[in-house]
Amino acid sequence: MKPAELRRLLPELSELAIECGGELGIELDGSRASVAAVERLLGMLHEEYKREPNEQGADRRAFEFAGYLIGVLEREGPAGEWRPDHPERGRGSFPFRWRGQDLFVVDWCWTRIVEGPTVDVGRLFESACSGGAPSDR
Fold first, then answer.
1. Residue 135: predicted pLDDT
2. Closest by Cα among 110, 132, 96, 125 to 45
3. What pLDDT is recorded for position 76?
4. What pLDDT does 88 receive?
5. Which residue positions in the chain have pLDDT lower than 70?
6. What is the pLDDT of residue 137?
7. What distance in Å separates the CA atoms of residue 129 and residue 133, rounded to the nearest whole number?
8. CATH numbers and ranges of domains, the chain
9. Would you give the distance in Å from CA 69 to the centre of its chain?
10. Full 3-state SS string of the chain
C-alpha cells in the first residue's frame, strides 16, 4: 500500500471510528478534546476484547481509530504522511510522519485494545502535539 492510498482511506477510517463511538454512546467530534473520548472507547474495546479475543477485530478497530486520530493531529497542523513501512520497525508498521516525528498511531490503538491501559493514547497524543517524542508506552 502506498502513502497516497493510505491518505485516501483516512476519511473512511475516521468515519468508522465515529460510528463505533456512536454505537457505544460516545460522540467524537474531531476536536483535540475528543481524544479523551477515544481513550475511553479504546478502553471499552479492551474490555470487549478480554471477553472475546478477536485479533482481526482489534486490527480493524486500531486502523479506524488511528485514522480518526491522524485526522485530529492534522487539524492541529501541519499535514503529515502516513506510510506503510518504517526503516527500523519494518514492513506493515504504518508510521505517521508528523512534525518531524514518526508516530505509530495504529500500534498505540492496537496495544490499548489488546493489552489495556499499558498505553495511554491521550498521553501519547498530547506528547506528540507538544513537540515531545512520545514513546510507545
1. 58
2. 110
3. 87
4. 93
5. 132-137
6. 42
7. 9
8. 3-129 (1.20.120.1090)
9. 5
10. CCHHHHHHHHHHHHHHHHHHHHHCCCCCCCCHHHHHHHHHHHHHHHHHHHHCCCHHHHHHHHHHHHHHHHHHHHHHCCCCEECCCECCCECCCCCEEECCEEECHHHHHHHHHHHCCCCCHHHHHHHHHCCCCCCCC
